[in-house]
Amino acid sequence: MAERMLKFVTVPQQGPDKRDAAARRTDFDEIYDSFAPARAAQQASRCSQCGVPFCQVHCPLHNNIPDWLKLTAEGRLEEAYELAAATNTFPEICGRICPQDRLCEGNCVIERGYESVTIGAVERYITDTAWERGWIRPAAPRAENGMSVGIVGAGPAGLAAADHLRRLGYAVHVYDRYDRVGGLLIYGIPNFKLEKPIVLRRWEQYEAAGIVFHLNVEIGRDITLADLRARHESVLIATGVYKARDIGGPGVGLPGIVAALDYLTASNRHGLGETVPDFASGVLDARGKTVVVIGGGDTAMDCVRTAVRQGAASVKCLYRRDRANMPGSMREVKNAEEEGVEFVWLSAPEAFLGDAAVTGVRAIRMRLGLPDASGRQTVEPVEGGHFSVPADLVVKALGFDPEDLPDAFAEPELKVTRWGTLKIDHRSCMTSLPGVFAAGDIVRGASLVVWAIRDGRDAAAQMHAWMRQNAAIAVAAE
Ligand code: FAD
Ligand code: SF4
Ligand code: SF4
Question: In CATH, what number is assigned to the domain containing residue 116?
């Protein structure tokens, strides 16, 4: 055991510096600074090198955390990077946006009494350093294998699979209906959590590796799934989930009530230098407005914090449960509060006020009841607990469901679960259509980037096994 490790008793936890909230409110830059080299080594040295590392068990990618922490503490950064990259396609992205408090860091055994190792920040530091020093090279194969794959969706699941399959020598074609690569990494997640050049440089590398992107191409509209199956040896569906859950109630159709992803996409496109008509006209811009965001997940947190940065007059978040029971990451709630967001816990909207446009939300107070079958406390309205809040921009952030893919792809044989997600064989990652695989949110439902990466890597391995077997059968038949 290196003398450098086990420093958690003497070295306190010190995360990366966070910019002052007043400064954060005025721009869309990331809020956490990178570690300086000395601090990264010092913080990595706090790890106690557990025999059974629960951090690794609870990382969806089973990253070899203790080993890359040790290498970082010893200053062996290139080796640390090689190890981090062996299990994670985008360590610099996960280091920034994984909810570490629920995953690796939340399960670090030194947490009680001594705060956890700052795993995410070290992972980010290692990989940012690797980019700076040119250690990250295009995923070009040693030899082409003569087979091709079609991947539908350039989000993290599709990209993780593309990376893996390209290294194995496949001609990889990625189709996406958007004009840029990255899926929700580029158009959903705001710049202050993940700066866009970090995603764009990966896109450049993939093109340099020979991956072909067919952008502005929607499968089901511009090309059929049947066409793709005819073009490629196998196909991966990684289309994510985009159907926004809606809300009822009088006045819900009033102008000024918008969907979260429309709002966030407009902000991200504006940040990328585009002219977005609905942003320019003010429909999707919170500047000077009294904003109410409805919902308690990470999307809601991104909306409230975007509105603050756009210069809203005030920003409230209405959520029907309390702080302890909200699905969003506590770290993001704290960041939002620091930036001036007001949370109105235990409140649910009943109606939207206004004539020509929304002017307010009528809501009702809720209280927590007994746990339901899932163990989660139910909520019920408090009699007479009606109240109103003013609003001239209401953002609905209530989650996402899958679109009807069998219908969109004109493939009635493509089987879905009762939630509308794609049904796969969880060992082979294959859908009900032979040679068509699926990964990411379209299988799991709205989830996390780290799970999309894991699913994309798993699906790629299964596609490879299936194509090799099929190729062998074809050769044998000749
Ligand atoms: P996506 O990223 O959704 O990518 C799917 C791609 O498929 C898109 O590019 C889409 O254009 C394309 N596509 C869809 N249909 C078609 C079609 N018919 N033809 C061609 N292309 C198509 N996760 C975290 O871990 N941390 C966070 O902080 C976080 N914040 C989030 C904030 C917001 C606002 C949202 C909405 C999600 C957030 N998530 C976060 C969740 C995370 O972004 C997703 O779990 C992840 O992106 C899923 O990856 P995916 O590849 O399955 O799908
Ligand atoms: Fe933690 Fe996410 Fe990195 Fe895994 S990928 S070690 S969960 S930050
Ligand atoms: Fe190190 Fe914490 Fe992981 Fe143990 S659980 S190996 S202390 S990071």
Answer: 1.10.1060.10
Q: How far apart are CA 368 and CA 391, in angstroms?
A: 26
Could you identify the atom of ligand 1 that is nearest to the CA of residue 409?
A: 18
pLDDT digits (tens, 9 = 90+) for 308-338: 999 999 999 999 999 988 888 888 999 999 9
Say if ligand 2 is within 6 A of residue 94 CB. Answer: yes
**Which domain covers residue 440, as residue numbers?**
148-241+402-477
Predicted local distance difference test score (pLDDT) of residue 268? 98
**Encoded tokens for 15:** 């995360």
The answer to whether 319 and 344 have CB atoms below 8 angstroms apart is: yes
Q: Looking at the structure, do residues 375 and 453 belong to the same domain, yes or no? A: no
Cα atoms found within 13 Å of the Cα of residue 183, Cβ hemisphere only: 24
- pLDDT tens digits for range 86-143: 999 999 999 999 999 999 999 998 866 788 999 999 999 999 999 999 999 998 899 9
Mutating to test ligand 2, I would choose from 88, 111, 331 the residue with most ligand atoms within 8 A of its C-beta, which is 88
Nearest ligand to residue 103 Cα:
2
pLDDT band per the 50, 70, 90 thresholds, residue 222? very high
| Vertex 165: Cα angle to 161 and 169 (nearest 5) | 165
Distance from the CA of 95 to the center of ligand 2, in angstroms? 6
Domain end: 108, 132, 156, which one?
132
Best of 46, 55, 100, 118 for a ligand 3 pocket test (most atoms within 8 Å of beta carbon): 55
How far does residue 185's CA lie from ligand 1's centre (Å)?
Answer: 7
Angle between helices 298-310 and 330-338 (to 10 degrees): 20
DSSP state of 328: S
Cα 412 to chain center, whole Å? 29
pLDDT at residue 131, as a whole number: 98
Would the pLDDT of 1 be above 50?
Answer: no
User: Is residue 50 one of the residues assigned to a domain?
Assistant: yes
